[in-house]
Amino acid sequence: MLAVRSGFCRACGRDHDDGDVRCSHCGWDVVPLPAQAFGAVGVVHSVRRGLRRRLAVRVGDHEGQAVLLVEGGDRQSVPHDALPDVAKLAPTNGYSARSSPGRLLQLAAGVSSGATKYKWQPADLHAAAVAVAGD
Ligand SMILES: [Zn+2]
Questions:
Q1: Interval between CA 4 and ligand 1 midpoint (Å)
Q2: Which of 42, 61, 62, 74 has the highest CB neighbour count under 10 A?
Q3: Rounded to the nearest whole angstrom, what is the distance from the C-alpha of residue 22 to the centroid of ligand 1?
Q4: pTM for the whole thing?
Q5: Who wins on pLDDT, 50 or 32?
Q6: Is 69 in contact with 52 (CB distance < 8 Å)?
Q7: pLDDT band at residue 135, thresholds of 50, 70 and 90?
Q8: Which residues are close to ligand 1, an ion, with C-beta < 5 A?
Q9: What is the per-residue pLDDT for 5?
Q10: Whose CA is closest to 99, among 51, 38, 56, 27?
Q11: Dist. CA 21 → ligand 1 center (Å)
């Protein structure tokens, strides 16, 4: 049988009980971060455009539709039930950043540094990250 490990304090490393809000040893905030702190913003989708597929990162929601920033800079609003597939190769999907601003900034950093060849403008990604963080 698998032992379920309870949470631990990220400041001092001691275990704590589920439901604790502060570490009993050092007082650090131990409330777990929600896995998707800002919802699905920052998730990268694969959009079909004619014969080609392009990547589009979700940068927000507007009037009940998801707003996607397509590589190259176009924005496109898509009903939630018509969102294209989540891209499998995108660095932000299932990767380390745990918030939407984090995912967008991670993507921007990849483009800026040349580590990825995606065709977004880092400035557009930065602006989107700021916008969602300011909500
Ligand atoms: Zn602690």
A1: 20
A2: 42
A3: 8
A4: 0.68
A5: 50
A6: no
A7: low
A8: 9, 11-12, 23, 25-26, 28
A9: 57
A10: 38
A11: 11
At 124, the pLDDT band (50, 70, 90 cuts) reads: very high
CA distance linking residue 95 with residue 115, whole number of Å: 15
- Strand-pair partners of 48: 53
| Residue 8 CA to ligand 1 centre (angstroms) | 8
Q: At 9, which amino acid appears? A: C
Q: Dump the DSSP string for 10-44.
A: TTT--B--TT-SB-TTT--B-PPPPTTTTTTTT-E
The Å distance, Cα 130 to ligand 1 centre, comes to 31
- How far, in Å, from the CA of 18 to the mean position of ligand 1? 14
For 27, the token pair is: 């007082």
| Interval 72-96: pLDDT, tens | 999 999 998 899 988 876 555 555 5
| Ligand 1 mean position, distance from CA 95 (Å) | 26
Cβ atoms within 10 Å of 37's Cβ, excluding its own? 15
What is the CA(65)–ligand 1 centre distance, in A? 42
Query: 56: closest CA among 128, 114, 113?
Result: 128
